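in:
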């Protein structure tokens, strides 16, 4: 089969499995990651037979951010994804490389990316945490976790308060989001990441103006 036909099978399975409890990891997130991964795959001359399935299936099992299993999410997703690929008879020679893309994409798993394809899938997923769409996703997650937007006494951690994103949403920018931009590995992603970081920094400046008129 050609890749577009495989993609129909991937999307059908993903749509069937999409869960309602986490809109920040829904099918729209997957489609954005796939689109970005395809762009990077072409620019970086990687293997689409690995990148495209890896992108579609990178969140094959969604585990809530506050779950004790969170750090195992990418390993669980990789295992289940390979089982699915076997079921639909996707060429076996790509299974291990696709599994590596899925396992290594996770920020919390901290697994080194050993292939260009894994770096592309990781970059595409991490970029979706940045910029305008990243802002939307972080606030969706904060709402689900009933987490306050900011600390009233020191909202931007400028006066010695310890950063704690388990308590305040804005702290997540400093704990993780800005650091994500520094972990991007391909030239294409680094350029886009810097643009998206500026979107987020402008938001924080605008927020500061509204908190301190």
């Amino acid at each position: 089969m050609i890749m577009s036909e495989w993609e129909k099978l991937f999307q059908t399975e993903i749509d069937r499995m999409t869960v309602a409890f986490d809109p920040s990891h829904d099918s729209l997130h997957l489609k954005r990651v796939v689109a970005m991964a395809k762009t990077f795959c072409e620019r970086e001359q990687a293997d689409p037979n690995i990148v495209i399935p890896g992108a579609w299936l990178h969140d094959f099992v969604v585990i809530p951010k506050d779950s004790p299993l969170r750090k195992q999410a990418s390993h669980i997703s990789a295992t289940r994804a390979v089982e699915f690929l076997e079921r639909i008879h996707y060429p076996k020679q790509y299974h291990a490389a696709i599994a590596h893309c899925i396992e290594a994409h996770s920020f919390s798993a901290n697994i080194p990316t050993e292939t260009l394809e894994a770096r592309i899938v990781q970059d595409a997923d991490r970029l979706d945490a940045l910029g305008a769409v990243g802002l939307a996703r972080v606030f969706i997650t904060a709402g689900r976790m009933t987490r306050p937007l900011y600390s009233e006494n020191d909202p931007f951690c400028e006066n010695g308060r310890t950063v704690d994103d388990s308590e305040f949403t804005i702290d997540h920018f400093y704990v993780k989001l800005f650091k994500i931009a520094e972990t991007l590995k391909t030239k294409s992603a680094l350029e886009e990441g810097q643009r998206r970081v500026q979107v987020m920094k402008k938001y924080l400046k605008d927020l500061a103006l509204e908190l301190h008129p």
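note: The chain has a mean pLDDT of 90.
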